[in-house]
Amino acid sequence: MKQPLISTLALSALLIASLAWSADDPRPIAQTEVDFAQDIQPLLRLHCWSCHGFEQQESGLRLDLRDSAMLGGDSGKVIRPGDSAGSRLIELVSALDPDEVMPPEGQPLSHEQIDMLRAWIDGGAKWPESSTQGSRLNSHWAYQPLHRSAPPETNNQSWAINGIDHFILAKLEERGLQPSPEAERTTLIRRLSLDLLGLLPSIAEIEEFLNDSRPDAYELLVDRLLDSPHFGERWGRHWLDMARYADSDGYEKDNPRPDAYRWRDWVIEAINSDMPFDQFTIEQLAGDLLPNATDMQKLATAFHRQTLTNTEGGTDQEQFRVEACFDRTETTGAVWLGLTVGCARCHSHKYDAITQREYYHLFAFFNNGDEATHTVPKSLAEVKAYPELKAAHHAQVEPLKAELLERQSRLGPALLAWEEKAKQTLEKSSVNPPTKESVQPDTEPELKIPENIAKVLAIAAEERDESQRKELLDHFSRMDKSTSKLIQQLDDLMKKEPAKPELQARVIVQRKQDQRQTFVLRRGEFLEPMAEAEVVPAGFATLPPLTPRQPQAAIADRLDLAQWLVSPGNPLTPRVAVNHVWRHLFGTGIVKTANDFGVRGDPPTHPELLDWLASEFIGAGDTGNQAWSRKELIKRIVMSATYRQSSRHSETSLASDPQNQLLGRQNRLRVEAEIVGDISLQVSGLLVHKIGGPSVFPTLPPGVAELSYAGNFKWNESKGGDQYRRGMYTFFKRTSPHPNLITFDCPDANLTCIERNKSNTPLQALIGLNNASFAEASRAFARRVLTLPDIEDEASRLEVAFQMCLARKPSENELRELTGLWQATREWYADHPQEAEKLIGAFAVEGATAEDNAAWIATARILINLDEFITRE
Amino acid sequence: MSPYESAIENSRREFLTTSASGLGMAALVALLQADEKRASAADPSIELTSVLAEKAPHFAPKAKNCIFLLQAGAPSQLDLFEPKPKLNELHGQPLPTEMLDKVRFAFIKKESAVLMGSPRKWSKHGECGMDFSDFLPNIATCAEDILMVRSMHSEQFNHHPGQLLLSCGRATFGLPTIGSWLTYGLGSESQNLPGYVVLTSGRGSSGGASLWSSGFLPSHYAGVVFRSEGEPVLNLTNPDGLPDELQRRGLDTLKALNESHFREMQDPEIASRIASYELAFRMQSAAPELIDLAGESASTLEQYGVGRPQHPQATGRGNVADAHLSFARNCLLARRMVERGVRFINVIYEAWDQHSDLEQDLRYNSWVVDQPIAALLKDLKQRGLLDSTLVVWGAEFGRTPLGENRNGRQANTGRDHHPFAFNLWMAGGGIRGGQVYGETDEIGWSVTRDPVPMNDFHATMLHLFGLDHLKLTHRDQGRDFRLTDVAGNVIQRWLA
Fold first, then answer.
1. pLDDT (0 to 100) of residue A815
2. 279-338 in A: which are within 8 Å (CB) of B?
3. DSSP for A30-62?
């Protein structure tokens, strides 16, 4: 559309501006009609975009997108529609100072070009929606719709088990490579157990699988593991990493959050019941906004209550409220979209197509989500048990109450007599009016009359009301021999009344009143909202449009955001989710940079496979699986021949695919921090398998909790089995996390963690060798081995112990090594019985000699330190 | 090397250079250096001995080690380093309202706040006439070696965010701390001790573990806390009843089994695990040797104040678990660590948050640190170590010229947080000592000359270590991160 000529008003402003900059060179006023697409955009592209476009945004300014251009740069607006004289853009392109003029290099703009810009601005700086050139037409792979292609044909017709294998094999064959052979069955069952449950298979389970000759033995094993309640623990923990879950506030004060575990348990339950990932997403981001939201749906929003809370003295709470909203914005971007939106908090993203304004579009969804609490039931078990407990309690209380009533009904005469005496006492003391206690030093205890009773006594008997009569009766009943014991009993019982199985959980609720407006914050500074840059909740331009579900409402809310994330047209969420699952089963994702699907991230090694899996995942495939089922996705992957390969590095693959990008073998993975501890406890027989509940306090070396602020934190070690729970239940104090977890790369829960580091350090070695928990595990493991039934000789014991740890049986060489160790330590302890006693501690085995016992502990200790023990092969 | 061995070697190289492996260039450099030393390729355990092996800096360094004396809580520069006669003159007066308009405080109520002078006695030291109050008589004698910066400034006025800025270059979580960057860039000289050690005295710090986190860098680069009681490093001691000879015997079996598994699987991570266990074993003897002060002379112990009696007016925030002894000991340990090649020693003393009772609280805590720090500087110098050891005294911010009137308190006995202008000092490691850098206005409110943002301080620190702050990067989430965030200039006038 052609623009009308500039208005008179603008014209005069322009004149003034012209005069101001050069008296003897007045600019002719632009008389031409200006068309953005034809006249302005090419000019911007040619002269501005190289520094203020998709690639770079010098001074935070971006001139290839309308929103960004109108928003301006670090120093504010550069285009003021209708006011070219007040527009910094004009000031800069027409500057005479060579240090200031834009563009800084090359030919300056001609007078005609500058006039054109002025005329365009004075005409209202119209930038039609249709002119969306620049990076909106983003060609980056991750933003493209899912492209589902059929699994390719391969030369080798016998290897593939499912679609995944076709994609993998085709690439291998392209490079002239072959897949690795299938791993041993012992490796497979150990691999599956660790990947799906984070636990080791028992010897019985191993034997059963080894002897299972049914053709679908493997699948049956997979199904059994997917049905295990421990599945939700293992895969829930992966989710907790991304949710930055912890049991304390963070920052200096780092107060405990005794309710945090409830949401953690929600995650475990949701994953165990295979809640579809779209629902899982919606409930966590916007459960409170669902129609007739249930308690559990409201609880689910605690996903975004895992942000830190700063209660340090003298903080500005608004600063940290905004900080938490930043975190919610960035975590959402990272977890569901695989994008590092955080950069755009302060300036339009340097690499990815996210403008600063778009960041605040996303931020606006969270800006009106208030922090609140909601009463939710505790665990299902506790809720189920409650009526019975309550009834049992009731059954105890009621007969006593009846008995009391009965006895009280017979108190009449005694009460009257006491009343008389009491009145006399009161009269005597009226010279000194009754004090609060109304205690006369010499009176008998029965006549110490509290103030409230004195008041009742002052009222004539017939004028007392029901409650006053009762007050008096109760008071007397507590003194009278016929009733006092009964009342004491009742009092004691009432103290034991079962508490309602509820707690106050931190949740997010939509702010209803005084809704906050959202502004772009200059450089992300909460004190610097840009008044001219108000934004409403919206999605990203490079993704399908996000529209409010109720068109009349006009403004989208968190529920719209959540539904948009899992809408069929959004290709990023399923790609990212599938990649996360893949990564946990192979060590690296199909997109290696699981936290970055942007242009700086790695492209997928198998793009067709990624899209095929993603479309299967959302139920758009042709294999008829349930939409958004995490368990089906996992099953599909672990059923593949690709997954079942050996992880041995082969000579050919080393040469041609050293990083195993083509997956010509499985990868060996050190198990995660929690699992290192879990499996040590498991082989020792100490592990308590209880799922969920309040976080626990296993052994902590002295002096660790004290390192947090003011040493304000007491770690009261758990007892009665809770000290042997799985690592994911260890109370996570952000400023002083358990060193056994952190040393093995457990994230610190201050920010979302999409991918854990995998380090290999001497401190880890020291934990395995010397840490009290691991030493205890060695002792218990030795006791377990020494008390195995029906085994007499040490070699057989060693074989079983070895198999408990590694699923496979030891080689002759391995057996010889271990026997050598056992014998050497046994000899030493035979000469040093006192040392043996010390090593054995509380784990002496009846009937075993001290040297046998100690030698076994020393040997068990080495078994749980083997690289293979803490590695999923 | 056989084709097979070289393939493994290539694999390892690829593995180390990829971002996803989390090891990156630093490890590769270590590996390349190990190439030259490799004696026998048959033994996997001698390969990849340590990703912390020493690495070449970008250019010739002045400093090799750093002792960072982190004075957490923020000591009052106005009572230690900055005499302000005008402030004393204006004692009890309110600040002009236009100065208060745009500022925020943690606790001060602006409307009724008044300026608070300092009752300290001051003297000048060294040729440049560096000011010290009577609370730091010993450190004052080192003025010729000290670069006193008066013009630090930041925007973080709460402890934890401020400590993050000081430690990581930005007040956000998830970033590596200075010690992590240095060990990432330079590796460790020591093959028996961690490259980055943390020593703490006083209360626990606001930042807790985030002050020695490796952020997105692998955890090899995290600080290792040396403890003041019990075993010096967590889990350093064998289980009760298991002597070193059996530890060694067990490790021999472990090594043999891991090596046989390595031969089977050919995964370089196994070799790396073997190396980790061997380093752990060496650390088991090196760390106790390190903390054993029996070899130190009586005069050295006395100079540091190890064993000195408690101050008669022991009081205040730092007075926790004989902090006066543990701080003295930590200073001496820091020197011993430098001698043994520990790259970065973070000595944390959280004791300085004097919102009230500033006079006696500051007197005590200054007494705690003054003698040991002065002894440390002199000891390093006398042993010829100061030239290559950078000593930094710094805090997350300073304290206000205004007295604190929290909750409408009438008597001002303390000062609030003040990030707009505060002090930091350095010595050794290529720093030009004997100079005062920067200036603040006559009441110490804001910087009037040579302002130093935290990123400039960090850029200069790295420069002293031969590292270009623009080149020392690590890619995370698609972005190359630096200690200096997106800013930072090397301050040439600081350099010797």
1. 97
2. 308, 310, 312-316, 334
3. P-S---IIIIIHHHHHHHTHHHHSSS-BGGG--
